[in-house]
Amino acid sequence: MIEPFDIEIFDYTYSVFPEEEGIYTIYKEGTEYLQIQKDTESQWLKLDPETGIPLFGLDEEVNAIGQAIAALEKNSQ
User: Fold this and answer.
1) What tens digit of pLDDT does each residue of 1-31 get?
2) Coil, helix or strand at residue 16
3) Cα–Cα dist 74/76, whole Å
4) How far apart are the C-alpha atoms of 4 and 38, rounded to whole Å?
5) DSSP 21
6) Which end of the chain is more exposed for a tag (fewer CB within 10 A), N or C?
7) Is 29 exposed, middle or buried (0-12, 13-18, 19+ CB in 10 A)?
8) How far apart are CA 58 and CA 29, in angstroms?
């Protein structure tokens, strides 16, 4: 399992905590913000905070966070 790490996007610092099965809990500026999961190579999904079910829809911020995660994971291999 990957250790938690920080990324900077859109002038914000996000702390990324890898969870089970490709799910990531994201903290924005120190506060729990959302959970995301990879859908396709270029598309990431936000998970519903109540049910954990993926919410389909384009979200630029979620995709940017996901792309940064994918890039860091690729570079760490």
Assistant:
1) 578 999 999 899 999 999 988 899 999 988 9
2) strand
3) 6
4) 17
5) G
6) C
7) exposed
8) 23
Distances (CA, A) of 12 to 50, 52, 77: 25, 24, 26
C-alpha to C-alpha distance for 43 and 37, rounded to whole angstroms: 9
Distances from the Cα of 45 to the Cα of 21, 27, 39, 76, angstroms: 14, 16, 6, 23
Helix, coil or strand: residue 57: coil
Q: Residue with structure tokens 């979200």? A: 59
Which residues, 6+ apart, have CB-to-CB distance to 9 below 8 Å? 61, 64, 65, 68
pLDDT tens sequence across 32-53: 999 999 998 789 999 999 999 9
